[in-house]
């Protein structure tokens, strides 16, 4: 990480960070990308030396980049279905030069969950229920897809070993397997920290 980027990560300086991206991406930030202070808090719980953390639906990489900046000994990966968002994430990561951050372009259903130890989830499937509040119209959305992705993720998380950590931001309880216990919360319950029993 390079010294000249320290200013981007100042607590509550989201506007400066969002300047890394073009205007249309910046405009989406308040609704769709994790704020810096939330990402810092979430990653504090998820980070462990040599662990691999996955952001399920990584957008333009704001969570992974912030988490990677604050936790250099942990690897943060993101999977993103929209190609333009994935490319913006790659570009931002390359500019900041964070060796512990990586992005994958694809659908989370194609991913090998065994390669990841802990997980971050910012209500990524919600646009299937409220497409009018979504990022754009580039992907198919439907209530069926919401159920399909939710069931898929529930199964994958449930298959993880005891001690697996999960942080949800604006998530709902029906997206958490019953095998996960609520450990903590922050930001008036918007951020929840879970652990597999
Ligand atoms: C609310 S945004 C969060 C972005 C990022 N995690 C952050 O916190 O800044 C959710 C993202 O999940 C992506 N997404 C939704 N369903 C997905 C799927 N099935 N596979 C991959 N990405 C998905 C969306 O395209 C969107 O960019």
TrEMBL record:
It catalyses: guanosine(46) in tRNA + S-adenosyl-L-methionine = N(7)-methylguanosine(46) in tRNA + S-adenosyl-L-homocysteine. One of its GO terms (molecular function) is tRNA (guanine(46)-N7)-methyltransferase activity. Keywords: Methyltransferase, S-adenosyl-L-methionine, Transferase, tRNA processing. It holds the Pfam family Methyltransf_4. Its EC number is 2.1.1.33. The keyword S-adenosyl-L-methionine applies. CDD domains: AdoMet_MTases (cd02440). It is an enzyme of class 2 (transferase). Catalyzes the formation of N(7)-methylguanine at position 46 (m7G46) in tRNA. This is tRNA (guanine(46)-N(7))-methyltransferase.
């Amino acid at each position: 990480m390079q010294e000249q980027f320290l200013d981007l990560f100042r607590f509550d300086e989201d506007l400066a960070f969002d300047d890394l991206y073009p205007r249309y991406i910046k405009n989406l930030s308040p609704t769709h990308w994790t704020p810096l202070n939330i990402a810092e808090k979430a990653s504090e719980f998820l980070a462990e030396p040599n662990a691999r953390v996955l952001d399920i639906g990584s957008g333009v990489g704001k969570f992974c980049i912030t988490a990677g900046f604050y936790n250099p000994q942990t690897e943060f990966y993101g999977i993103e279905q929209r190609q333009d968002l994935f490319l913006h994430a790659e570009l931002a990561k390359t500019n900041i030069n964070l060796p512990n951050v990586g992005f994958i372009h694809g659908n989370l259903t194609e991913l090998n969950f065994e390669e990841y130890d802990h997980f971050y989830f910012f209500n990524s499937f919600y646009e299937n229920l409220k497409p009018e509040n979504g990022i754009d119209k580039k992907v198919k959305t439907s209530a069926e897809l919401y159920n399909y992705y939710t069931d898929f993720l529930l199964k994958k998380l449930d298959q993880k070993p005891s001690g697996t950590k999960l942080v949800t931001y604006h998530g709902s309880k029906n997206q958490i397997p019953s095998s996960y216990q609520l450990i903590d919360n922050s930001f008036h319950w918007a951020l929840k920290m879970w652990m597999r029993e």
